[in-house]
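Bug: token stream looks shifted between consecutive jobs. Job 1:
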Amino acid sequence: MNKNSETIDQIILGHAATKERQKVALVISKVFDSPKFPGGDTTAQNVADRIFVLAEAGKLESTGNLRRWRKSTVRLPQ
């Protein structure tokens, strides 16, 4: 994992720290709007891939197919 991935992971987890589940598309948008976003050649798909990795690692709780950004949700494990 590179430094950009670590930064993106921190931003994702920060935005997922709510009681409510959030659509993956919304979390991706919030990552890009974050002042800490590293920019560069990072795409929305790169951010979605990080969300998938975090969910697989148990750091995010998800519902739905994470590949369908507008139909799936995430939050921190309760």
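Job 2, same session, no restart:
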Amino acid sequence: MTDQSEDARRLQLALYAAETRLRQIEQSKADFIAIASHELRTPLTQLRGYTEILDALAESGSLDAEQVGQIVGNIRRASDRMDALLTQMLDLSQIDMGTLKLQHGDVSPEAAVRMAVEQHVDALRRRHIGLAAYGLRALPPIHGDFQRLVQAFSAIVSNAVRFTPDGGRIEIRGQMQTSADGASTVLLTFADTGVGIGAEHIELIFGRFYRGHDASLHSTDASRFMGAGPGLGLTIARGIIEAHGGQIRAVSTGHDIKGCPGSTFLVTLPLTAAIPSD
């Protein structure tokens, strides 16, 4: 009787945990839809507004080359923003279905990281966030998709920028390591002095539709402190890295906006290209 009662209790706890997780997933999906709708509506509103301005200036005959250039630039930025979100959604769909296409070749980890960082130079300067890299030049090439790896590394750097306060620091380190079976792998670490990650979120931040903070605090400025996009970056980064046979995980001592304990993302990628001899 005691064993049956214990089994029933464990089953009840398991069902409760599953129900709680299901509610979290459903809420995360609802948050994602709301945020994605907002992300699409904002540039769409901008596009409509600029086309109306363009039309009004054309009708009044007061349109000049400088005005056209400014309006076209604004329209282009709004359309690029919409395109970026739709591309992320397509990437996520391909990852879910296991159909993500990779164009393999020899990839320099240093070059991929450098190109990823270049996408955030303006934000780093504006936010006065220092960034330093160590050990990347000594790394041998890996066999992978250069553009996809840049995309994954960019998402990790973007996350570090968003959750690191102004004046903070990001460090990227590269090194070789050997797995238990003797295989050589590249280890890249992305460490920041940001707000950190709570223990309850450390395994969930890569999950589909998951957000670690209240969706009502969402900001369309993805580079501002605690700002956010639709929340797909780390999910896609994990999918890309795993498609390369690698792994990504995060470590942090906790979440503290004032204390800023920071967090570190560790990316391990298998080495299939020959290691050059000295």
